[in-house]
Design goal:
The protein contains 23 helices and no strands. The protein is mainly alpha-helical.
Length: about 500
Amino acid sequence: MAGIKALAKETAIYGLSSIVGRFLNWCLVPLYVYLFPTEEYGVVSYLYSFTAVALVILNYGMETGFFRYANREADPERVYTTTLSSVGTTSLLFIILLSLFIRPVSDSILLPQHPEYVWMLGVTVAIDAFSNIPFAYMRFKNRAMRFAVIKLLNVGVTIGLNLFFLLVCPWLMKHCPGSISWFYEAAGGETFGIGWIFVANLIATCIVLLCLIPELTGRRFGIDFPLLKKMLSYSWPLLVLGVAGILSQNMGQIVIPYLFEGQEEAARSMVGIYGANIKIAIVMVMFTQAFRYAYEPFIFSQAKVKGEDKSKAYCDAMKYFVVFGLFIFLGVMYFLPILKHFVAPAYWPGLEVVPIMMLAELCFGVFFNLSLWYKLTDRTRWGMYLSLLCFALMLGLNIWLVRAIGIPGGYIGSAWAALISYFIVMVVSYLLGRHYYPLPYQTGRIFLYLLLAACLYAAGMWLETVFAMWLTYTVRILLLCVYAGAVAVFERPLRRR
C-alpha cells in the first residue's frame, strides 16, 4: 500500500492545482455565457479545441519520453536539457511560421475575419508547450508544491485579467476613460469582445514563463542527438496517440462547424451550447487530470520495484480511480439542478450531455490507466493504434449522429460519439493488456461498484419525481453516504493488511 499512498498524496497535491485551478476557471464560464451570446461563446470553445490539438503536437510525446529516459539514463539532467532544447526550438519555429502564414491558417479554420484571435492563441500554446517541460521536471523531482503554486498563479492571473478586461474596463470607460483609453480603445474596446479572453491568456502564460526561470537557468543547454533520437523513437507513436486522442476529445467542437455549411451562426451556437454544458462535467475531467499528473511518474518509478508489489499497486490504482470517479459522477448528477445555474438559461437545452460526457470521461480515465501496459513494455505503437481507432470511431460517429440529429440539438450526437468511442477503446486496451502485460485487476469488485453506482443513480433520479426538492437533496446526500460506506466496508480488509 505504500506505493498507493504515495500516489494518493501526489494526486492530492497535483489535484489542488488542477481541481482548484479548473474550478476557478470554470467560474469564468458564467461570466462568458452571460456576457456573450451562444454563437460568440461558440468561437471560444471552437478555438480552444484547436489549441488543445496544437499543444499535443508541439509537445510531440516528449513529456512522457522525458519521464521514461530520466528514470532510465544515468544523467537525468542531460535528458532534461535535451528535451527542453528540442521542444523550445520547435515552439519558436511554430511561432515564426504562424506569424508568416496567419492569413491562410485563419481561413482554413473558418475564422478569416479574426486572424488576431488565432495568432494570440497560437503564441500562447507555443509558450505553454515549452513550459510543460519544466513542469514535467518538477514532477520528476517530486516538487509538487512548487508545481501547484505556479499553476494556481496562472489561474489567478488569468481570472484577474478576464475580470479586468471584461468588467472593469467597460466600467472605467464610462466613469474614467482617460485611465485606460490609451490601450483599451486602441484594441477596439468593448467591440473587441471575446478577444480580451485571449489577451488575458497570453499575458498569464508569459508570467508563468517568467516564474519558471529557476528551472531554465544554471544549466548547460544543448541537444544530445543520440539520446534525442532514442527519445523520438519512443515518443513519436505517443505524438500520434496524443493528436488522435485530443482530436477525439474535442471532435464535437471542431467538426460541427464543418458539417453545416451555410449555417455557420447556428453551428457556432451549437458549439457554444455543447462547450458550456460539458464544462459542468469538468469535475470528472479535473479528477482525471490530477490523477494523470501523478500517475506517469508513479508507474515508471514503480517499474523499478521487484516482486509483486508493483502489480498490486497498479491494480489498486485502477480500482480506486473507478471508485472515486463513480462518486464524482453521482455527486454531480445529484446536484445538477443547482449546478446548471453556472450557465445562462439559453444554454440549458444542452444539459442532457452532462451525464453522457461524465461517463465518457470516466471511460477515458480507465483507458489512460490501462495505458501502462504499452508504456512499460515500450510498445507505444499500440497506444498509437488505439488512439487512431478512437479517432476513427469518434469522427465517423460524429459525422453520422450530428448530421442525423441536425440543428439545433446535434451536439447530443457528439456526446454519444464520445461515450461509445471511449468505451470501445477501453475494452480493446484491456484485452490487449491481458496478453502483453497481464495484471490481476479486481474486475469483479469494480463491476460491483459500477452496479451499486447505477442503482443509486436511478434511485436519486426517481426521487425528483415524487419528493419536494429539499427532501430530494437530503436523501441524495444520504445515498452518497451509502456509496461511501459500502466502499469503506468492502475495502476494510485492505487497510488491515
